[in-house]
Amino acid sequence: MPVQNMKGALRLLLIVFVFVAGVWVQASGTLDELLFYLPDVQYLVVQHLWLTAISGGLAILVAIPLGIMLSRPSMVRFAESAMQVLNVGTTIPTLAVLALSMSFLGIGTVPAVFGLFVATLLPITRNTYAGLKGVSPALREAASGIGMAPIQRLFKVELPNALYVIFAGIRTALTINVGTVPLAFLIGAGGLGELIFTGIDLYDPLMMLAGAIPTALLAIAVDALVATTAFVAVPRGVNPSRA
């Protein structure tokens, strides 16, 4: 599916970037100079992860129930319209979303979290919706045939069979979120963008790399963490090919 292809391409791009940057650092003998920024990196990584955790966590808490609601038969005529509304947050460049958030909410963490939340919402909602709609009708009919109520069918049949697709959306959304958080520095929210954009402003490649390499590594680590969680959480016997 397109989401899966985008996720794979993004992971490959990050891996290639880290590899090339690492080779360049080793070849140029600048590792010691990069370590000069280590205290800053340690401090800013905490800010970076905090912004990702808050905005991504809020997106998960809102997007999964919203996807479930839109997948219900009574909401079928509103589902695509709702997706198009959510798509606005993805269509508008993230920097513009952050600027608009800053206009209404001021400078700092709050507008950054709101902007990142909006940008992260669609992939999780759409995958939740698609995963639930993709559950075999035969499974639904079998669950109804043994007397399950709609709420029982949702939690015991539909969600377990949709988990791979839902986790695929979460992996994509959180990986993009980690890579977008550096922009939050531009509205005063901190994060590794402080090293990246200050390095650009000062034309200091080492400072830029000190922020860019940890950002890439964090994105890969978050993707791997969600993938491991999916492997543990998804019931055995569910077809993983959908994810």
UniProtKB/TrEMBL annotation:
It comes from the Bacteria. Keywords: Membrane, Transmembrane, Transmembrane helix, Transport. Residues 45-226 form the ABC transmembrane type-1 domain. Belongs to the binding-protein-dependent transport system permease family. Its main location: membrane. GO terms for cellular component: plasma membrane. It is found in: Cell membrane. PANTHER family: GLYCINE BETAINE/L-PROLINE TRANSPORT SYSTEM PERMEASE PROTEIN PROW, OSMOPROTECTANT IMPORT PERMEASE PROTEIN OSMW. CDD domains: TM_PBP2. Pfam families: BPD_transp_1. The chain crosses the membrane at residues 12-29, 49-70, 82-100, 106-124, 162-187, 207-234. It comes from Halomonas nitroreducens. It is a multi-pass membrane protein. InterPro entries: ABC_transp_perm/SBD, MetI-like, MetI-like_sf. This is ABC transporter permease. GO terms for biological process: glycine betaine transport; transmembrane transport. PROSITE patterns: ABC_TM1.
